[in-house]
Design a protein that fits this description.
The chain has about 650 residues and is mainly alpha-helical. About 65% of the residues lie in helices and about 0% in strands. Helix 13 packs antiparallel against helix 14.
């Protein structure tokens, strides 16, 4: 969209890389990309995890896993295969393999045929087998690797995964136990072993999960396991606390949400039970695990484009840290593509990490110099970083060979709109709509611009011309509501926004528009309810969190104020946007004042004023300093 404070939201993130497992020389990827993020990670795995690893220090993602199996969330089916052997290593017939994966399988098998004694190549082939459910063949490969290198923790761990995938829990337990003997710092082994032994030995399981959380307090699966054990011991309150910790780390953790729902149901807390049941139904299968070795298996089931799409979806759902780590891990393992660079750069850009985003896009430019998408992404990043001259120069370059490209015209039109040149923006967007009249995104940008220019008739006419498709119904309703609101038809506008929310529950601007309309009518309580509902659906929507926090911190009616919740939401909103938006920092200042921390409130109000001045907003800066004076007088701010 055209306006940063509108549908474009920011996300804060950090990035991690992962261990190389056993594909040090067994695949044929493009040249590996080293970590270029410069963003700190949260979880570190000691190099002692694997005595044979060549990686000196590695990092892992936040957990989102469920129990059992290689992919953790879903076990692959055991496949029947027609296998031959090369020096005892099984060779699965390629017609048993998914067609799109046959080249990588064939390559892995050829690597073993060329060097049948190579432990790493045998291991890599075993990982391919395990990823696609050839569990017996995987066990054979890892057993050979263990015979050759019995002190290598990873081979025992991989074989345990294969046994676990085949429901051979006793054998899996033996190998997980051995893996822990060899690498007592490897947290995922405690968790997986705990999931197995809890069925027969609650005391042992409790010790394993507690050890896991003591070593890594950010492992959601470990906290989930602790909750399961506590629940079985009849300690419901402890179980709830552990499951709450799990979903705090991973809000889309469906199993933890479902467990909480059942626990609250048992306590007669129907509203809480229903809330978590809804979240459980929304939650999906986690893509990334807090398990660097298991990642070696799952990465073989996904191509570059699907990895990028999954990461973008994770970030959209409010998990940008996990999404960024996933892409960094892919790059570290040599999985490289234009789509991955664009996805990771886009996540950085939304997080306010402009330099890191530019770095990704420049790297992509070197590898894909003719890509229009990469150049457009770089132009956006330059504009976001205040380098407008570079951005327009890149657009000039693009227009020299893509003057009839609707995509290029749309992006340049957005830049003109942001830079306060609406007529130039209008010319580009109209031409883009003429060139590609079936692209709803162009029309919606055009409609938004016309509304900003107070051309309500023009916006309404553009709405009639815009394609009417099921997948854009929510956004069409959003703008229909905006047109109705501009015409003073408040009831119709609010009705359309409610329908837009029902149609597209994650449409942030619909929640914002509806709440703003309610506030203007004096119904602050209803507006707050709408905002909180939007936050539940879109936990990464910084604008919703900021708006709700402002009401909670400054409402005239004390029954609508909640300083603690205001502080929580305002802190999150600032973190999501890199502490760079003056209005969000101003809200955080008001929240601190509401909780009685006037010194911090005054300090943040000054920060907000300086941010506003940097944006050329002199009058807004004065407003921040007026509130600062209130805070210095030990007075909270009221609307």
């Amino acid at each position: 969209m055209l306006i940063r404070n509108g549908l474009i939201i920011g996300v804060a993130l950090s990035v991690a890389v992962m261990p190389t497992g056993c594909d040090k020389s067994t695949t044929s990827p493009p040249e590996r990309a080293g970590s270029s993020s410069g963003i700190e990670s949260e979880n570190r795995v000691s190099p002692k995890d694997d005595p044979d690893s060549e990686t000196p220090t590695v990092e892992s993602e936040s957990s989102a896993s469920t129990t059992g199996g290689v992919d953790v969330a879903e076990k692959p089916s055991i496949r029947e295969s027609k296998a031959t052997e090369v020096s005892g290593v099984p060779m699965v017939a390629l017609d048993q393999v998914p067609e799109q994966r046959r080249p990588q399988f064939e390559f892995a098998q050829e690597q073993v045929r060329d060097a049948p004694k190579s432990t790493d190549r045998i291991c890599d082939l075993g990982l391919h087998y395990l990823a696609f459910g050839f569990n017996d063949e995987a066990v054979t490969c890892f057993s050979i690797a263990i015979e050759q290198q019995p002190m290598a923790m990873r081979f025992h761990y991989f074989r345990a995964l294969a046994f676990e995938a085949s429901d051979l829990t006793a054998k899996a337990r033996e190998d997980f136990e051995r893996a822990l003997e060899l690498a007592p710092e490897y947290v995922p082994a405690y968790v997986r072993l705990g999931m197995i032994v809890q069925e027969t030995d609650l005391k042992r399981a409790a010790a394993l999960f507690e050890q896991a959380t003591r070593r890594d307090g950010n492992d959601a699966l470990a906290w989930f396991g602790r909750g399961q054990v506590a629940h079985r011991e009849g300690k419901t309150d402890d179980a709830i606390a552990h499951w709450q910790k799990a979903i705090a780390l991973q809000p889309d953790y469906a199993d933890a949400q479902a467990a909480l729902s059942d626990a609250y149901e048992g306590q007669g807390k129907k509203d809480l039970a229903q809330k978590h049941r809804r979240r459980a139904e929304l939650g999906g299968k986690p893509v990334v695990q807090n398990d660097p070795l298991a990642f070696q298996v799952t990465r073989r089931t996904r191509d570059q484009d699907s990895i990028a799409l999954e990461a973008v979806e994770m970030a959209r759902k409010g998990h940008p840290i996990t999404a960024a780590r996933y892409l960094e891990a892919a790059q570290f393992h040599g999985i490289e593509s234009e789509s991955i660079r664009l996805a990771l750069g886009g996540i950085y850009l939304d997080a306010g990490k402009t330099e890191e985003a530019i770095g990704q896009f420049l790297s992509a430019m070197r590898s894909y110099p003719d890509s229009v998408d990469v150049k457009l992404a770089l132009a956006r990043a330059y504009a976001e970083g205040g380098m407008t001259t570079r951005s327009f120069a890149l657009f000039d370059e693009l227009m020299s060979s893509n003057s009839e490209s609707a995509k290029v015209l749309m992006e340049r039109g957005r830049l003109y709109a942001r830079e306060g040149e609406p007529q130039k923006a209008l010319a580009d967007l109209r031409k883009a709509a003429d060139l590609d009249p079936k692209d709803a995104a162009v029309w919606f940008d055009l409609i938004e611009l016309l509304l900003l220019m107070n051309d309500v008739d023009g916006a309404e006419q553009a709405l009639r011309q815009a394609p009417n498709e099921a997948n854009t119904a929510g956004r069409r309703l959003l703008f229909e509501g905006a047109v109705a609101a501009r015409r003073g038809e408040t009831s119709s506008a609010e009705s359309k926004w409610r329908t837009a929310i029902e149609t597209e529950p994650t449409l942030v601007m619909a929640y914002q528009s509806l709440a703003q309309s309610m506030q203007q009518r004096g119904n602050v309580a209803a507006a707050l309810k709408v905002l909180l509902a939007g936050i539940e659906q879109t936990p990464s929507a910084a604008d919703l969190q900021n708006n709700a926090a402002w009401i909670l911190a400054t409402a005239t009616d004390q029954n609508q104020r909640d300083g603690k919740l205001a502080l929580e939401l305002a802190t999150r909103a600032c973190a999501l946007t890199g502490n760079r938006r003056h209005n969000f920092v101003g809200t955080l200042a008001a929240a601190h004042a509401e909780t009685g921390d006037f010194n911090e409130a005054a300090r943040l109000a000054e920060v907000a004023a300086r941010l506003a001045e940097a944006d050329g907003l002199t009058e807004v800066a004065e407003q921040h300093r007026m509130r600062k004076a209130h805070y210095e007088d030990q007075q909270p701010w009221r609307q």
